[in-house]
Design brief:
624 residues, six-stranded parallel β-sheet, globular, seven-stranded mixed β-sheet
Length: 624
């Protein structure tokens, strides 16, 4: 694709994406925050990027994969991704790993120790937090993890800063011999802003020298490195006062805000005349700069989403006039209206809001739209059988978590990635084999590769019983259809040998491992009844691709035959959104939504639904 850009001299020129990287061209482009982070890594000369997909961080790696100069991979989990980046850094290259906030937990083991070891080439960890839990099981604040790990944290406020801060993070990493965290949030990751693109600054890989005292973290070495970490953080806190990423914006001194990240935008929108101390480096904090700012303003508010990370430190320094969580919640996303509602305007009174502004302070009363599995989703077919057999499921993280809600109501537990198998194992050890006769563990193929393998290994090693159902839909569905080690394709799109899940399970010594089509209702029922009755570990792999995958075609549609309908409602029980009940009790099927999986037709005992080749040209694969 060729795009028109503006060059410094003012003339118009046209370049390809590849040419733009080699020419002295200034381009301004609107990018997602995640795309901007990827661009910052590219411009910083990063050579290695590793990640596991997780909303809201996924697009970072998908964008990085477009740059030929960077090796980019989907790792099986965040711990491995961090270790890959650490290895590249020790070898002298700039490296980055990206993950969502709960992925930081998975990566904590290598991350905490890498803080002691330090870096070779610059090492950056991108953590994408999710205030409001739009796609997460908790609302943790990664700044607190970084404080515990003793690594600095940069927090950009828009896409332009996302690029610049990412570049700066690598310089900071190498100058202070430390991993650096760049913290994003859902609002930044998925909002767009103007970014000025610059050329990639190629950086030679540093010469590697063996240094066991630095990189071998046995106790004797780690004790000494801990001293270095404390000295480094103290020096960073002092230097932070002069860093350009931290800036005081003095306006009206009667009201001042200390803030960072996306909340800075809300402060500027709600109270444009207030003074603001905008922090780009949020750990360690620039104490002298904060004390100076606090001394100049009459009222001081600390506006930070989630935990009072900044507030607690500021108040511990004796700045007791700082007000934060006494006014602002520790839950969910913030907004400009939150300030308008709770902070008196400059002059001392709460502002008078227009009728429109007042109404916007409360959430709009809109009909609830609970999440639901897609029409034709193979998980719905599997869950419909489990539901009919009254089998409970220990669940996991993925689209299939929706098996917990009506009308399927099969999944009873969901804790974290890979937890379903270990949860079932714990139940069996607590209550015995008979208790879990009507239980299974359900886990997706990508999640199984992430952390399910170790859990299954544990069941075998510790002589458990229980049935594990691996819902293999050939993708990482929930985060937007990324590949993994069992799909046979890399992040860069290269074809590679695919891990065979069936053979992998058998290699652990499991005797009973079976593959069943996710839409073979009779085969599923027989397998569930047979395997849950065993006194040993067994695995059922249900196979059918995600209906949204490229290359999946839908030549058939399900068509109702009203005159045969007995109005029993059996076809409606799995909750497919393509089906609706008419006023007379018969069923209609929306042809535009139906993917022709045939589940409803198989559930109808009266042949009142047929699968027909509605579009004979639909044998071709989906192109979008």
């Amino acid at each position: 694709m060729r795009i028109q850009y503006r060059v410094p001299e003012g003339r118009t020129a046209v370049y390809t994406e590849q040419e733009i990287r080699r020419k002295d061209v200034t381009e301004k482009k609107i990018l997602l925050g995640n795309e901007a982070i990827a661009r910052g890594a590219y411009e910083a000369g990063v050579r290695v990027s590793a990640a596991y997909p997780g909303t809201p961080s996924t697009e970072i790696s998908e964008s990085i994969a477009k740059y030929d100069e960077i090796y980019a991979e989907w790792s099986p989990n965040e711990k491995v991704a961090a270790e890959v980046a650490i290895g590249a850094s020790i070898a002298g290259a700039r490296a980055m790993c990206s993950m969502k906030h709960v992925g930081v937990n998975v990566a904590a083991d290598p991350l905490f120790t890498a803080a002691y070891a330090g870096v070779g080439g610059g090492l950056v960890v991108v953590a994408a937090d999710d205030p409001g839990m739009y796609s997460s099981q908790n609302e943790q604040d990664s700044r607190m993890v970084a404080r515990a790990a003793m690594i600095p944290v940069l927090e950009p406020s828009d896409s332009g800063e996302a690029k610049e801060f990412t570049r700066f993070a690598f310089e900071l990493s190498e100058k202070y011999d430390t991993p650096v965290m760049v913290r994003s949030t859902t609002r930044l990751s998925h909002s767009q802003g103007v970014v000025e693109l610059e050329e990639r600054r190629e950086r030679e890989i540093l010469h590697y020298e063996r240094n066991t005292a630095k990189y071998v973290m046995m106790p004797g070495n780690a004790v000494k490195r801990h001293v270095s970490v404390e000295e480094r953080m103290k020096k960073l806190a002092e230097d932070a006062c002069a860093m350009s990423v931290n800036r005081a914006e003095y306006r009206d001194l009667s009201v001042g805000f200390i803030t960072s990240g996306i909340p800075y935008q809300y402060v500027r929108e709600a109270m444009p005349e207030a003074s603001v101390l905008k922090l780009g480096l949020v750990h360690p904090l620039p104490r002298k700069l904060i004390e100076e700012f606090a001394g100049k303003v009459d009222k001081l508010y600390i506006f930070e989403e989630l935990e009072p990370v900044i507030e607690e430190q500021v108040r511990s320094w004796g700045i007791l006039k700082a007000v934060g969580k006494a006014l602002f919640t520790v839950q969910g996303e913030y907004s400009a209206n939150m300030i308008r509602e709770r902070v008196p305007a400059i002059g001392g009174e709460l502002p008078e809001l227009s009728e429109k502004e007042s109404s916007s302070l409360s959430p709009a009363q809109v009909p609830a739209r609970p999440p639901i599995l897609c029409p034709g989703c193979p998980h719905r077919s599997v869950y419909s059988v489990l539901n009919r057999l009254k089998i409970h499921a220990a669940g996991d993280i993925g689209c299939y978590t929706l098996g917990a809600v009506p009308p399927l109501s099969v999944v009873d537990t969901t804790i974290c990635m890979g937890s379903s198998i270990s949860t079932l194992h714990g139940m069996e050890k607590a209550r015995g084999k008979e208790y879990i006769r009507n239980w299974v563990a359900v886990i997706g193929d990508s999640t199984f590769m992430h952390t399910g393998i170790n859990s299954l290994m544990n069941m075998v090693y510790n002589q458990s019983s229980g049935t594990v159902v691996i819902l293999d839909n050939s993708t990482t569905g929930m985060t937007g259809h990324q590949d993994h080690a069992a799909t046979g394709k890399t992040l860069k799109g290269e074809a590679v040998p695919a891990i065979n899940i069936l053979n992998l399970c058998r290699s652990l010594g499991i005797k009973h491992v079976y593959e069943v089509s996710a839409f073979d209702l009779q085969g599923l029922e027989e397998a569930f009844l047979r395997e849950t009755g065993r006194d040993e570990v067994s695995v059922i792999i249900t196979k059918a691709p995600c209906v949204l995958l490229k290359g999946v075609s839908f030549p058939d549609k399900c068509v109702p035959i009203p005159e045969k309908c007995r109005k029993c409602g059996a076809c409606l029980r799995p909750g497919c959104p393509a089906l609706t009940k008419n006023e007379d009790g018969t069923v209609s099927i929306d042809e535009t939504m139906c993917n022709g999986c045939g589940l409803c037709a198989k559930l109808c005992k009266f042949d009142a639904i047929e699968t027909r080749r509605v579009n004979k040209s639909a044998d071709t694969a989906r192109k979008d």
